[in-house]
Specification:
By secondary structure, this protein is an alpha+beta fold. The chain has 11 helices and 9 strands. It has a single domain, classed as Transferase(Phosphotransferase) domain 1 (Transferase(Phosphotransferase), domain 1). Helix content is 41%, strand content 16%. The strands form 3 sheets. It has a 4-stranded mixed sheet with strand order 2-3-8-9.
Length: 258
């Protein structure tokens, strides 16, 4: 007897719809070329698409928080998007969050699962730097934040990656096209070796001077000041002061009538 598993077609990962990365030579140096793909171009050219994406993600995090669920590994590889369907409920595309292997219930302390460090908040990395992922670590995080604090930072990191046009983990020099000219960049939270302490230090450096680091990337995006305001609230260093999913849904960048 044969058994078959039939699954719903979920779509393509966000990462594969944003970037195509290939090694190449540029000015005599081997670097990585980052080509911006269909969805990235849509986010840039259609003023409604990025706010609508953020709204859909905030709706999802709001639902998680209602049930005290922390996904704990939000990243572009764990978001599936189907661009080949036309939703009838006001969404810009069908989207699904996947991979709950690191998820946990906020009310039930347990072990910290493995997650992708470039998208994790500093308080999480700090605990991992000095712990083995034990039960008390999650309890300590819960004392100083909310069920949505970790995932809101991760969503902010994903939006930051979209705005900069470079994967956050890209520690090697890469070439991207900015307003018609080639420039070399690296991911804002990227460090060689991907060690927790170095990523934590990089996050601190960026967030302390966030406007200085993000200003050049905001050029060309619709409503850059509103986008900066939302990003800065999602990436607040203090998890207790991070914007909630409910407040993201009410933010003028998301609600702005385009």
């Amino acid at each position: 007897m044969d058994y078959f598993h039939v699954f719903e077609l979920g779509g393509t990962t966000l990462s594969k719809l944003l970037f195509d990365i290939k090694g190449e030579f540029y000015k005599g140096e081997r670097i990585y070329g980052v080509k911006h793909l269909e969805l990235y171009k849509r986010f840039r050219e259609d003023s409604y698409s990025l706010p609508a994406f953020i709204k859909q993600m905030a709706d999802t995090l709001h639902l998680f928080s209602d049930y005290n669920i922390v996904h704990c590994d939000l990243k572009p590889d764990n978001i599936l998007i189907d661009l080949n369907t036309n939703p009838t409920d006001g969404r810009v595309f069908n989207m699904k969050v996947i991979d709950f292997g690191s998820a946990y219930n906020w009310d039930e302390a347990g072990n910290i699962g493995m997650a992708t460090p470039e998208y994790m908040p500093p308080e999480f990395l700090q605990k991992l730097m000095g712990s083995k992922g034990n039960k008390s670590t999650i309890e300590q995080l819960a004392d100083k934040s909310y069920p949505w604090s970790i995932d809101v930072w991760s969503l902010g990191a994903i939006i930051l990656e979209i705005v900069t046009g470079v994967p956050l983990w890209m520690s090697l020099k890469c070439k991207i096209e900015v307003r018609g000219r080639a420039v070399t960049k690296q991911g804002l939270f990227a460090v060689k070796g991907r060690s927790y302490d170095k990523i934590y230090a990089k996050q601190k450096q960026i967030i302390e001077r966030f406007r200085d680091f993000i200003a050049e990337y905001l050029e060309g995006w619709d409503e850059p000041e509103l986008l900066y305001d939302l990003l800065s609230k999602m990436l607040r260093w203090d998890p207790a002061r991070r914007i909630s999913p409910a407040d993201i849904l009410q933010h003028p960048y998301v609600r702005y009538d385009r």
